[in-house]
Amino acid sequence: MIELKNLTAGYKGQAIVTNISFIAYPNELTGLLGVNGAGKTTLLKTMSGLIPPIHGKCFISGKNIYHMSEKQRSQCLSFMPQRSSIIYDIPVIDVVLMGITPHLRFLETPSKKHRLLALHVLAQFNLSAFAHRSFLTLSEGQKQLVVIARNLLQNASVMLFDEPDSALDFKNRHWILNHIRELIVKSNRSGLITLHNPNDALNYCHRIIILNEGKIFHSFQPHIISVEELKETFTAIYGKITVIKHQGQWMIGRLFDESRV
Amino acid sequence: MTTKKDDEQKLFFKNPIKQYIILITLGVVVFIISISSGKFPITLTDILRILTGQPMDSLTRLVFLNLRLPRVLMTLLSGIGLSLAGSVYQTIFKNPLATPDLIGVASGANLGAAIAIIFFAGNTLSLTLSAFIGGFIAVMMALSLTQLSRDKSMTHFILAGIVISSLTQGVIMLLKYFADPEHQLAAMEFWAMGSFAHITQAKLFSMLPFFLIGIMFLFLLRWPIRLLSLSDEEAQSLGIPVVWVRYAIIFSATLVVASIVSLTGLIAFIGLIAPHISRMLTRKNDTHTFIISGLIGGVLLMSADTLARTLTVSELPISILTTFIGAPYLAYLMISLKPNDY
Amino acid sequence: MHIKTLSFRVISFILSLLLLISILGCTSQTVETPNLSEESSDGESEYNDDLSDENSSSSLEFPITITDHLNRSLTFDTPPQRIVSGYYISSSMLMALGLQDDVVGIEARPETRPLYTLASPDFLELPIIGSMRNLDLEGIISLKPELVVLSVRLHEAIDTLSSLGIPVIGINPESTELLFEALEMIGSITGTLEQAQSIQLFYEDRLNFISALDIVSSPSVYFAGNSDFLSTVSNKMYQHHMIEQAGGMNVTYAIDDTYWATISYEQLIVYNPDIIIIAPGASYTLDDLRENDNIKDLTAIQSNQVYQMPSSLEAWDSPIPSGILGTLWLASIIYDEQYPFDAFIEDVSSFYQLFYGFEINPESITR
User: Fold this and answer.
1) Model confidence band, residue A212 (pLDDT cutoffs 50, 70, 90)
2) Distance, CA of C339 to CA of C333 (rounded, Å)
3) What residue of B is the nearest CA neighbor of A82?
4) Preceding omega of A91 cis (within 30 degrees of 0)
5) Which of B279, B240, C1 is CA-nearest to residue A99?
6) Of the ranges A34-48, C95-109, C239-253, which one carries the lowest mean pLDDT score?
7) Looking at residues A147-171, what average pLDDT do you find?
8) Of A49, A252, B44, B77, whose CB is crowded by the most CB atoms within 10 A?
9) d(Cα B143, Cα A36) in Å, to the nearest integer?
């Protein structure tokens, strides 16, 4: 579980999000939604300790993450960036193996035992056949999955994902989001994901927090919210929309004027 | 999910044992050829007799132990060191062009040594220390310059390296202008093109501690080095205190480079070619790849120096040979590499 | 292949390297430096002492100890008969002392020195031992020299060679006095001290002659260097002294913060020298100067007082044994009627006849 208390975050003293407080619970995937520039990524990066907060606290299991070292933080918190930054050929297994770093002693290198663990995680994602292939030869979806596997190896109780679907096509987007949701639910972890597509948030997250102009606009649970409340909330953010529930799934569509050409 | 068909050949990673065996054998052969080549006639039998302590013409023994052997060892160590440093810089700066020459380390070390020659009468210890400080500051400045610039891409990184190199060259030119042509200028001149002609036993011993310490540190830091091949964010989120670790790595790599460059001057391109070839051969970028790049560099430089000593009547500066191998290779890379193909 | 065994192997590699190096260190310490007297099988070990006069050099008493320009002392038991010369200045010195037959190794590109072709063509066949920038230490040692003469700028190489037991002296003939010290150093151990002293007498004689000449006022002289017309000398350079000795006044006498200095056209116009001389090895010609619009108003150009030191024999603007000829050449220009150019050519002829043993071609001496 991760709890934010009055967190104000930004760059060089300029606040982008102010006074954010919420809790992301275990076994739940919490979605951070908002338009571009609302501050989702800034908030997420601050929550993972990558950017120092301007003000406020962030607790995991009762401890303030800003009082922890990088290593301690990485043991209880994992962060998945939008895009992988790998430029040299590297076997997939080695990418996953990097996730064991938080658990290595000073100057220790991974052992056979750690390698087996990494293989095990790859197997969970049905990627064992790719273990010794070059990471760069995988499809975008597979690459994202490998990075998730790496994060899993950290064995952190809180997992943060920064728009992991942004580079993926329609099919792969759902594939990844599904994997993430399954992962969180089955392993008792708390998951926090930033998204810009409200439909994805509605369909995969147990809880949604909407950011607007640097503050929390609204927070709700998709499976218990009413249509009216949903419509009201989203209209305020996205303008003219229509809300449909079809076969148990929410869908938001943009309403167009008759004047549209 | 399907993989791209044209990358089929990259699928499997070779066992490095075969590569080690080939390289070490090649290295031994080149070493033997190298120690028996030179203007002073020394045969292999002579060498065997010297090494087993049998009676030998004292001058031949002296020349072999004081000049020939230290020189060849120095070329081997320099090749290993510059390639290792190149591999490390290319990994942590996520830039396949980050070689000791291009990022400003070598010219910074050059400047450090020039200052030592002018202000501290250039004794070997002050030379190495000065070269190290110069190299370290140069890298730090290039790094800061890139961080400060808005575009943190590779292009700007190379530009930063060029800026720092140019600055240091400018200061060196200034120093040369005021230097005493009797004593100081000659010492600074030989730097520009690199040479192993002045290596003696004493000099080899003096650089060895710094060299070995640097290599040892790099070896101990091999896992953090791998992690720094990711973006700073990712490395940090995996528990690496990026800023400190990067300083430590740059410190160690620069120690290696400075210990070499303070004695030999600038040797072009080795830190570029060897890591590239190694990555091509091993198809990855882990510790084995680094070590293999060191071996490749060692063999290359030993061969180059053997040629430099024997091809022409007077010695060719070593950088001429390495440039004639390295520059075309770099051109070939520029033309043939696809964007993600390093 | 696992990381753990890898660390073991790397550590053992480093340890074996250290082991190899320490073996090196041990074996080298047990070696003695070779004894000079063992190497030279020829040569007399003792000369008779005819005269007790110090200035008489036909008597040589070995062993002789000399001090070179790096303040190192060397003792010679016998005259060295295998000599290696490190650069053109020492080569010229050895020729002037009549030692050319003893030279076994020479500096790079001897074919570019007209003097060698004229007076000592054997030099062109000798093994090359490198240059100032790139000295071939192994090459020198393989010639088993009994004396190596190098510039003091190569003090590192000098240290290395002497640590291997090779007799090497460092010379720094940057002025006439230092030139004669160097000549005497070599002369005293090779039995040619008399020759060295005769060269000095020639200098004294001609310099006395010059200083006795009258002139109303010293003309101002500008010396243009090899690479560029605007490159000139400071007062720390040999050429400055050469000008003053010849009776001229160096316009750049005030420059003292560097060695070679590059000035601007304005500066030169302010100097407005009476005479312009260009170095023998200049990459430009006298005609280039005459056609240069920027300087057409200079006094020297207008009155056609521009001269180039001849290069057909040696470059007289450096401290070589024939350096006096550079001074005399300029003196002949300055003292025109009192020291006509023909008289100068005769002096050149005598010098090379006496000390280098060959006839010059008078037409190759130009101004």
Assistant:
1) confident
2) 8
3) B234
4) no
5) B240
6) A34-48
7) 91
8) B77
9) 31
User: Which residues are paired to C262 by β-bridges?
Assistant: C231
CA dist., res. B19 & res. B283, Å (int): 12
Whether C25 has its CB under 8 Å from any CB of chain B: the answer is: yes
| Per-residue pLDDT tens digits for B58-78 | 888 888 888 899 999 999 999
- Residue B27: which pLDDT band, with cuts at 50, 70 and 90? very high
Q: What is the pLDDT of residues B299-331, one digit of tens each?
A: 999 999 999 888 876 677 788 888 888 788 778
Rounded Cα gap, residues A97 and A160, in angstroms: 19
DSSP codes of every residue in A179-194: HHHHHHHHTT-EEEEE
Residue length, chain A?
261
Q: How far is CA C334 from CA C57, C247, C249, in A?
A: 37, 7, 11
Does residue B11 form part of some domain?
A: no
For residue B1, the distance in angstroms to the closest alpha carbon of chain C comes to 30
CA C87, CA B198: separation in Å to the nearest integer? 18
- Residue B223 to residue A107, Cβ atoms within 8 A: yes
Q: How does DSSP assign B254-320, residue by residue?
A: HHHHHHHHHHH----SHHHHHHHHHHHHHSS-SHHHHHHHHHHHHHHHHHHHHHHHHSSSSPPPHHH
pLDDT average, residue stretch C114-139: 89
Could you tell me the CATH number of the domain that includes residue B49?
1.10.3470.10
Is beta strand C306-308 parallel, antiparallel or unpaired with respect to C260-262?
Answer: unpaired
Q: What are phi and psi of C123, to 5 degrees?
A: -55, -30
What pLDDT, on the 0 to 100 scale, is given for residue B191? 63
User: CA–CA separation, A77 vs A55, rounded Å?
Assistant: 20
Least confident of A198-207, C81-90, C131-140: C131-140
How confident is the model over B222-247, as a mean pLDDT? 92
Task: Tell me whether B284 touches chain A (CB under 8 Å).
Answer: yes
Specify whether the CB–CB gap between C260 and C207 falls below 8 A: no
How distant, in Å, are the alpha carbons of B179, B181, B192, C343 from that of B175? 6, 11, 14, 46
- Interval C43-53: pLDDT, tens: 333 333 333 33
Q: Give percent of chain C with pLDDT exceeding 70.
A: 84
Range of the domain at B115: 29-336
Cβ of B238 and A81 within 8 Å? no
The pLDDT of residue A27 is above 60 = yes
- The answer, for C125 touching chain B at a CB cutoff of 8 Å, is no
Sorted by sequence, the CB contacts under 8 Å of residue A69 that are 6+ apart come out as B241
B35: closest CA among B88, B94, B75, B86?
B75
The conformation of residue C252, written as its DSSP 8-state character, comes to: T
**Measured between beta carbons, which residues in chain C are less than 8 angstroms from residue A112?**
2
Domain count, chain B: 1
List chains adjacent to chain B, taking adjacency as at least 3 C-beta pairs closer than 8 Å.
A, C
Taking the C-alpha atoms of residue B88 and residue B271, their distance in angstroms, rounded to an integer, is 10
A117-146 residues touching B, CB cutoff 8 A: 132-134, 136-139, 141-142
**Structural domain contains residue B217:** yes
pLDDT exceeds cutoff 90 at A216: no
Is B6 among the domain residues?
no
Is residue B152 domain-resident? yes
Q: What is the pLDDT of residues A63-114, one digit of tens each?
A: 999 999 999 999 999 999 988 888 888 999 999 999 999 999 988 999 999 9
ipTM of the complex: 0.89
Phi, psi for B125 (deg, rounded to 5): -65, -45
- Position C161, amino acid: L
- Measured in angstroms, the CA of B283 and the nearest CA of chain A are apart by 6
Alpha helix segments (H runs only) across B93-221: 105-119, 124-148, 154-178, 184-189, 201-220
**Secondary structure (3-state) at C115:** helix
Q: How far apart are CA C63 and CA C189, in angstroms?
A: 9
